[in-house]
Amino acid sequence: MIPFLLQTLTFATPVLLAALGAVFAERAGVVNIGLEGLLLVGALVAVLVSAATGQPYLGVLAAALAALALAGVFAVFAIALKRDQVIVGTTINFLALGATGVFYRSLKISGEVKTLPVLFGDGSTAINAITLLGLLLIPVAQWLLYRTRLGIIVRSAGEKPEAVAAAGVFVNRMRVLTVLATGALCGIGGAALSIGIANTFTEEMTGGRGFIALAVIVFGRWNPLGVLTAALLFAAADVWQTRLQAQGTLHIPYPIFLALPYVLTLLALAIRGAKVKPPAHLGEPFEQG
Amino acid sequence: MKLVACVVGGLLLLAAVILAAKASPVAVALALFRGAFGSKDSVANTLIQTTPLLLTGLGVGLAFKGKLFNIGAEGQFLLGAVFAIWAGTQRLPAPLLLPLALLSGALGGALWAGLAAALKLWRGVQEVLSTLLLNFVAIQLVAWMVRGPLQEAVKQYPQSDKLAISSRLAFLWPGTQLHQGFLIALVLAVLIWAYLAKTASGFALRAVGAGAEAAEAAGISVAKTTWGTFLLSGALSGLAGAIQICGVTYFLADPYSKGYGYTAIAVALLANLSPLWTILTALFFGALTAGATEVQSAGVSSVVIQVLQAVTLLTVLAYGWLRERGK
Fold first, then answer.
1. B326–A contact, CB cutoff 8 A
2. How many angstroms separate the CA atoms of B68 and A254, rounded?
3. Which of B136, B299, B309 sits opposite A94 (nearest CB)?
4. Which partner for B130 in A111, B116, B174, B266 could form a disulfide, CB atoms 3.0-4.6 Å apart?
5. pLDDT tens digit string along A114-140?
6. CB B21 to CB A106 under 8 A?
C-alpha cells in the first residue's frame, strides 16, 4: 500500500503543479488551455540543460524560466491584447508542440541526462525534490489564497473585477502575475516528468496531462486542497492501469488501459460538473477604467 | 499596412525559430514551395491535403461561430474514419458501400461531438475540456480497433482490411492520386456558407454565437441550436475522416491522423470563420502540409509546420487587435 501511495504521489506531481498554478490564474479570471504546452517545454528544457551541465537542479530552473517566458507570450496576447483566452492557449500548445519537436530533433541531446537525485526510497517509490515541493506548496497555496490580502485580490479578480479595480488594484497586473506563476510551476512540473519520472524526453510526452490538470481544477472546486485530492485520484488510476498492464493477468487490450485516465476524467467531470460553479468572470478580458 | 506589419513580424519570428534550429529559412521556404507545387504530383498532394483540412476547418469554424469551442475535430475525424472503414467493408451490394461509408463517417463524427454536446447541456461540462479529452480517447479507440474488432483478416499487422476498389472514391485528375473527395469538400464549403447566410437555422446559430441570452430572449432555443451546431460540426469532421479512408488510405491504421483536426483550428481562424475563405486557408495549410514532406531536406524536422501554424495564429491575433484598436 505504501509503495502504491508513493508512486501515486510521484505520478501526480506534474499535474498537481500545473493545476496548482492554474487554480490561481482561474480564480483571477484567466483560463489557460496552454498548460499542456507549458509542461512540454519544461520537460524538454530540463533534459537539455541537465544533459549539457550535468546539474539536474539547473535543468529544473531553466525549465521554470523557459515555461515562464512562454506563459509571458500567453499573457501578452490574452491579457494585454485581450484576445480570446481559449484561442491563445491553443496557439501556445501548437507553438510548444512544434518548437519542442524541432529543437529536440535538431539539438541532439549531448551527454548523459542527469536525473533528479532521489531523496528517499528507491525504484518506483523514490521521492525527489520536486515531489516534495509539490506537497509543500499545497498548504502554502491554501494559505495564500484564503488567508492573505493577495488571495482576496486574486479571488475577487475573477468574481468581481470591477470591485477590485475600484479599490485601486490593477486587475490585469494580478492576472499576469498568476499566469506567470503558472508558467514557472508548469516548467517545474514538466521537469518532474522528464528528469524525474521518464528520465528522458520524447515528443508529446505530456500526453494530455495539461488538459487533465484543467479537469482536476474543476473536480477540485478551484481550491488547492481539492486539487491535491483530485490529482491523487487521477494519478492512482494511472498507476493502477500501469500495474495491471504490467501484471498481464487481465486479458484486456492495452489501448483500453491507456484510454482509462481520459475516460475517468470525463466521467468525473460529468458527475461533478453540474454541481460546481466556476469563477464568475472566468475567461473574460477586463478593461481597467 | 497593419496586415503587412503583422505578416512581416510573423515571418521574422518564424525565421528566428528556424535559425535557432540551425537551418536556413530560405532553404526551408524553397523546400516547402517545391514540396507543395514543384511537380504535378506535389500539386495533387497539396489538394489531397487540402481536402480533410477544408472539411474539418468548416466544422471547427461552424462551432466557433456558434461560440462553441469544439477543439475535438481530431477525435471526430478519427471516429469518422473508424465508422467508414467498418461500413465500407460490410457484405452489401457494391454500389451501396461508398455512400454508406461516407454517411457512416459523418454519423461517427456527429456522435463523438454529440457526447460533448450532451456533457455540456446536461452536466455543464465545458466543451473545451470534453472535446480535448475525447481526442485522446479516440486515438486509443483507433489503436484498439485495428488490433481487435477491425483488424485485417490475416491478423498480421495492426491495421484493417482494405476497401474493395468499388467502394473507393474515383480519381479526379488522371495520372495523380487526387480523388473526388476534394470536390465534395468544395461543394460543402458553399453549402455551409448558404446554410449560415440563408437559412433560419443558420441564423439561429449565428445569433446564439453573438449572445446566448439575447438569442433566447428573441425566442431562439439555445439548447436546440447548441445540439445542432455540435452535430453538424462533428459530422463535417467525421466526413473528412471517411473521405480520407475512401479516397486516400483505403484502410485504417494506427496512428491514423496527421493532426488535421488540430490544424483545422488554424484553418478556421485564419479564415475569420467564413466558410468561403476557409477554402483558401485550407489550401494554404494544405500546401504547407504537402510541402513539409520536402522540408527535411533543408535540415529541419517537418514538425516545423506546427510552429508555422502557431505563428500564423499569433499573426491573426495581433492583426485582430490592431484592427480593433484602429476603430
1. no
2. 33
3. B309
4. B116
5. 899 999 887 778 899 999 999 999 999
6. yes
